[in-house]
Every structure is written in C-alpha cells, then in structure tokens.
Amino acid sequence: MKKVVVLGTGIMAVGIAAGFLASSHAVILLGRSKERAESQKDEIHQLTKEMNAAWNPEAVPLVFGAIEDWSDWSDVIWVLETIKEDMGLKQALFAQLDHRVPKHIPIGSNSSGFPISKIAANLATAKRMFNAHYFMPAHIVPLVEVVLGEFSDPVMGEQVCQIYRDAGKKPVLVRKDIPGFLANRIQHALMREALSLVDAGIATPDDVDTAVRYSFGFRYAAVGPMTQKEISGWEGMAGASVEIWPSLYNVKELQPVMANLIANGKYGMKSKEGFRTWSDEEMKEMRRKYSARLKGAFDVLQIEPD
Fold first, then answer.
1. Residue 306: pLDDT band with limits 50, 70, 90
2. 3-class SS at 292?
3. H-type helices in the chain, by residue range?
4. Distance between the two ends of the chain, CA-based, in angstroms?
5. How far apart are CA 90 and CA 97, in angstroms?
6. Residue 84 to residues 13, 113, 136: CA-CA distances in angstroms?
7. Which CATH class for the 186-303 domain?
8. d(CA 5, CA 59)
9. Is the distance from CB of 99 to CB of 128 less than 8 angstroms?
10. What percent of the chain has pLDDT over 90?
11. What CA–CA distance (Å, rounded) separates 95 from 125?
C-alpha cells in the first residue's frame, strides 16, 4: 500500500493526514514524540470518516511515531513537513531528512512563507524537495501548490502533482519560487484593492464581501478567471482595463484602516473584534456556515471533473 509520511501534529498535519487516509493512502504521522502524534488520532479519524464514510482503519492504517526515531521508509511515496513556521527548525529538519530519507522519495514543506530554495539550501538532495502548500481546512480545500525551488527537479515535481491527483486533490505546479507562490499572490492582489476601497470610504467590509461572493466569486466557483474570460471574451476585458487598471490602488504598506485594527489588537474572531464585534454565538454560527459551504462546494467539484 502507498504510504505518506506527515511530520508535525498541528491543525494542518491533521487535515492533511485525513485527506490521504480518505483516498486510501496509509499515513505515518510523526511528532516530537509518539505520544504527541497519537494524541491526534481521534480528530484524524473523525475528519477521515466525514470525508469517506466507508474508510476502514484496519485496511488503510494510520501509524504514529517520533520524528527523531523513525527509520521505516518502505513503500513511502511522499514525505511532507508541517512543523512550526520557524526557518531554523525547518532547515534543521530538512538537513536530517536529506540523509535519512532514501533519495528516490520526494520531500515537501507545507510552509506558506518560507521558500523551499532557502529551506533546502546547500542540501545534497535539494532536487527532490518542494513546497507543497495547502489551504485551510486542508482536508476540504482541494488546491495544493507544488512549488519548484531553485534546485527542484521539474519531472519529480510533476510526479508529486500526480500523487495529489491520485489523492483527489487539485494540484498546480508553480514553476518559480516566488513570494506568495500562485494563489496567495492573486488573493493578496484582491485584498490590497478591497482594503484600499474600504480605507477610502468607497465601500464597507460587508459590501466588499457581498460584491465578491455574488458576482465574480460566484462565477469563479464554476470556472477560473482565465476560462471565464474565454467564455465572455477577452476584448471586453481589454477595453475595460484601459479605464480601470490605471486607477487601481498600488500601495506597498498596510492601509491605515488595516494598520489601526492590528495596532488595537482587533484581529477578527480570535480577539472577538475586527471590522465588527463577534459574540460567541455569532462566531459559532459563522464557522458552521463556513464549513458547510466549503463542504458543499467540495462535493460539487468532486461530482463534475474539469
């Protein structure tokens, strides 16, 4: 049976492990200790059952161990690191994996901020190392960005993408190691414009959400922006760009409205206040809606392939 090794025991590791188990890949979860890894067993089982009610833990096993002690790499097709976002810790771990993991097995990092070129710098087997960036919740959101570092082997990168296709994910191969990879660059371009519009008093946060959800966001759930313009016609967009693009905001620092939120400790739900205040009941209900909508979108995407 094909095996995947997940290093780490946080929320991302749990979701990633569940996703692989649900697609019939055995998972080896390694933590600082075997006991720490085993403490995530119930949560992983619950998420896996939610994704695949027929999953049989005896037929598709979940095994636990300690990162420092693990040495069984038989039938392993992919090793993925999800530890704390600390460059020194990641570099130290990858230096170990460079020697401990057989050279034919690709190794990835789920880091969203640190490029694999720096994590794997000066390592002998850097060609088999990649960023493999998930989006929360990892067991539901289909996208995985497989990012080539300076020394990564593109052929092996395509093989990693196939591992994810076999696991029911939607991978993209990002061919250059740039800040934000692919999806976050597009997402931040949107957020820069949205926050600038709020900062200028042109729209409220609620208006921005409504405009995105019920216009192009609604369409993008069906097809991406490139295909949508193939449908509607590029000449229309090109004509509009002459008027719109020069007026887009191009700020390089946080907008005052955003900087003030952060300065005042208004981080959103985690502090019960962001652009608005949140009661315990409101947070619970919004999180429920968010999860349900994501699950519904996931089910639709799985029914009809591209």
1. low
2. helix
3. 11-22, 34-38, 41-51, 87-100, 116-119, 154-166, 183-199, 205-213, 216-220, 225-232, 234-244, 256-263, 280-303
4. 28
5. 10
6. 11, 11, 15
7. mainly alpha
8. 17
9. no
10. 93
11. 10
pLDDT digits (tens, 9 = 90+) for 219-247: 998 899 999 999 999 999 999 999 999 99
Q: Give CA–CA dist 260/195, Å, rounded.
A: 12
Top-tier CATH class for 3-174: alpha beta
Task: Write down how long the chain is.
Answer: 306
Domain boundaries, the chain: 3-174, 186-303
Joined together, the tokens standing for residue 27 give 């998972």
Contact 258, 188 (CB under 8 A): no
Q: Which residue is associated with the tokens 């947070």?
A: 283
Residue of 7, 136, 25 lying closest to 65 (CA atoms): 7
Contacts of 161 (CB under 8 A, 6+ apart): 146, 171, 172, 173
Q: Write the pLDDT tens digit of every residue in 152-202.
A: 999 999 999 999 999 999 999 999 999 999 999 999 999 999 999 999 999
Residue with tokens 């739900």: 269
* Cα 23-141-218 angle, rounded to 5 deg: 135
